Amino acid sequence: MIDGTIPYASHGITYGSDKMEAAKKEAALKQRMDGFNLAAAEADFVWCFLERTAASYRDRFKACEFMPVGYIGDTVPPSRRRSPKDIDAFFFGKMTPHRMRVLDTLAARKIAPIIAGEFTGLGWVPDFLADSLLDRAKVGINLTLHDEASSPGVSDPRFASCMRIVEMLRRDTFILSEDIPLDNPYRPYMRNVPVAELAEECRRVLDSEAWRAEGEAAGARFRTEMAVQKICAPVIDRTLAGLGVT
Question: For the domain 78-225, what is the CATH superfamily, name and number?
Answer without folding.
Answer: Glycogen Phosphorylase B; (3.40.50.2000)
